[in-house]
Amino acid sequence: MQFPKDPGQIKGFVKRSESGTGPEKRKSAPLKTAPKKAGTEAWISEYDIHLFKEGKHYHLYKKLGSHLRTKNRKKGVQFAVWAPNASKVSVIGSFNNWDKTANPMTHRYDESGIWECFIPEAEKGSVYKYLISSRDGYTAEKGDPFAFMWEEPPKTASMVWDLETKWKDKKWLNKRNKQKGKPQPVSVYELHIGSWKRVPEEGNRSLTYLELAEQLPEYIKEMGFTHVEFMPVMEHPFYGSWGYQITGYFAPSSRYGTPQDFIKLIEALHENEIGVILDWVPSHFPSDLHGLHYYDGTYLYEHADPKKGFHPDWKSYIFNYGRNEVRSFLISNAVFWLDKYHIDGLRVDAVASMLYLDYSREDGEWIPNEYGGRENLEAISFLKEFNEVAYGEFPDIITIAEESTAWPMVSRPTYLGGLGFGMKWMMGWMHDTLEYFKKDPVHRRHHQNDITFSTTYAFTENFMLPLSHDEVVYGKQALINKMPGDEWNKFANLRSLYAYMYAHPGTKLLFMGGEFGQTSEWDHDSSLEWHLCRYPLHQQIQETLKTLNHIYKSEPALYEVSFEHTGFEWIDIHDAENSVICFIRKGKKAEESLVVICNLTPVPRENYRIGIPQNRAWKELFNSDLDKFGGSNTRNNKSLIPEDIPAHGQEQSISLTLPPMAVLYLKLE
C-alpha cells in the first residue's frame, strides 16, 4: 500500500487531534445564529449545527441518536434526530409504555431540522422508536439512524446503548501506525459471520461474537492470512441480504451479541496481529418502514426522483450525495467504525453503481449530469471526501473499492484527480482467470491471452485480486467445481490457481471455504463444510494456502513493489502450445527476485529451458505438485545451475522439469 506520506497535504483532510477523539478546531468567522432559548443546554452546539449544514460534521454519532448522560443532576438519555419536514416527533419506547404523547421532542430553533429531548426514565437497554408525523399527515414509527444497537431481527426497535470499553489493542495500533506508508503483504480472508461455523447441536445456530473471538483468530493465524474482511456487520432486517441492505448503520448486528462483544472479537483478532476490514455500503438502503426510507414523510436520505433515487437491481434506495446533511451522516458513519471499533479498513461496496447515473438503466431511465454526461458528479465528490477524511483522521488504515469498470484513478490520491482509495478490486483479473481455469487444459492453448492480459493494466491501479463470495453463489458453483477433469485434476487446478494468484502482482482476497476446497456453493443458512477437512485432498488444499501465505509474507518480491511495473517482468508468454507462462517478481533488492513458472496442463515437461536474469544457482522455493499438497511429487531436487545458452532475451538459461498442472517459484540459492 502506497499512500501519500503526509495526507494532511491533501485539501480537505481533517487531522486527528492529539487525543484521537475528533477533528482539530478550525478557524472560521463568527457565526450569526438565532439566540438560544433560556435554560437550554448546548448538547448540540452552534458549531455542530454549522458543520452539519455544511456537510462537514464527521462525528455526528457523538451528537445525534441516543446518549446516556446526566442533565440537571438527573441521569437519563439525550435523544436527537434529524427530521426537518416533520410537524411533530415523539420518542416512544419501553420507558413510557410506547405512549405517543408522553415524550414529545422539541424542534430546534436554528433551522437544522433536528429534534431533541432528554428523558430521565430511559436507560441503557431501553428500546425505542421515533414517532414521526409529517406536514401532509404521514405518520410512521422509525428506528434511530444513529442507534448503537438494535433489537434482534425480526424485531425492529432501536436500543439505548453505550460503547464504553477498555480497549486492549494498543500494541496492534502502534504497530499499524509504524507500518503506515510502507509496503505490506495483504492477504484477506473474506467471511460471513452468520455462516462461517454453526452449532448443529443447538438448532444450527450461528456462533456469537464471543465464540468467534475464541475460534476465528486462531484459525486465521494458522492459515496465515493478514486480514479478515467481514461482510456487512451493520444491523439489517433481512438475513438473506447478507448485510448489504442496512437499517442500522451504527450498530453491529445484535444477532450475534452486543457491541462490546463485537469489540472483544476485534480485540482478539488484533491480539493475533490480524487486521479487520469491514464491508461498508454507502450506495443504497432498503425500503423497510423502520429504516431510512421516506424518513420524515419526505425523501430525506434518498433522491425524490426514482431515476436518481431508486436502484433497479436491488429494489433499494440511493443516497442523495448532493445533500450536505446526508454526506455528514455517511462520512460520520465511516469515521465511526474506524474510531469507535478500531477497524483497520473499509471495503466500499458497489462503487460502480455510485459513479454512473445510467448504471443498470436504459435510455430514458436516468438523468444526465449538468454537463450532459453519465457520471454522478455528486457521488464522485462524496467518495473523494470520504477518502480524504478517512485517511486524514486515520492515515494507517485501508480503503478498498469494489469497482468493476474502467473508471480511471480509483486508487490514486484526490490531489492528482483520483478518487483516493487505497486499493481497487481487480475484477477483470478475476473474470479472465476463472474463465481460463474452467476450460479443459486441451483447449487452453487457444486462450493464452486470458491468463496474460491482466498484466497490460495491472499497474494502472493499486489492485486487490478477489475470489469473493460473488463467485460461489447463484449457480456459479464452488471454486473446486469450476475446475475441469477428475478429482486429481480438479485439486491440481485449484492449487495452481491459488499459486498463480499469489504470484501475480496485487494483494489477495479469498472467500471462506475456498481455503479447503468446499464443494458446495455458499449457503448463508448453513455452516461451511468443515467435515471435508477430514479428507486428505481438502487438508492438502489448506496446507497449500498456509504455505502460500507464509511465502507471500516472507518474500519481499511478492509484495514490496506490488503496485508498480518495476516489480514484474515477463520471461515468456508465447508458449501457448504447452500452456506455460513464466515471469519474474522483483523486490527492491535484485537478489530477492523470484522466478515463477506455471505449467497449466497435466503433462510434465522435462528439460524445459527458460532464460533467467542472474548467473547464479536457483532452487525450488515452492512447488504446488509436492505430495504434501496432494500432487505427484515431480520436483527439481538439485540446484538449477545456469548455462551460457541464451533464451528469452537473457544471456543464460536453466533447464528444469515442469511438474504436471503445477506452479513453481524459484529463488536464488
Automatic annotation (TrEMBL):
Location of the region described as Disordered in the Swiss-Prot/TrEMBL record: 1-36
Keyword list, A-Z: Carbohydrate metabolism, Glycogen biosynthesis, Glycogen metabolism, Glycosyltransferase, Transferase
EC number: 2.4.1.18
Annotated active site: D349 (nucleophile), E402 (proton donor)
Compositionally biased tracts (Basic and acidic residues): 15-27
Keyword Plastid listed: no
Enzyme class: transferase
Family annotation (InterPro entries): A-amylase/branching_C, Branching_enzy, GH, GH13_cat_dom, GlgB, GlgB_N_E_set_prok, Glyco_hydro_13_N, Glyco_hydro_b
Pathway where this protein functions: Glycan biosynthesis; glycogen biosynthesis
HAMAP family: GlgB
Family designation: Belongs to the glycosyl hydrolase 13 family. GlgB subfamily.
Subunit organization: Monomer.
Function: Catalyzes the formation of the alpha-1,6-glucosidic linkages in glycogen by scission of a 1,4-alpha-linked oligosaccharide from growing alpha-1,4-glucan chains and the subsequent attachment of the oligosaccharide to the alpha-1,6 position.
Protein name: 1,4-alpha-glucan branching enzyme GlgB
Organism name: Salegentibacter chungangensis
Lineage summary: Bacteria, Pseudomonadati, Bacteroidota, Flavobacteriia, Flavobacteriales
Gene name of this polypeptide: glgB
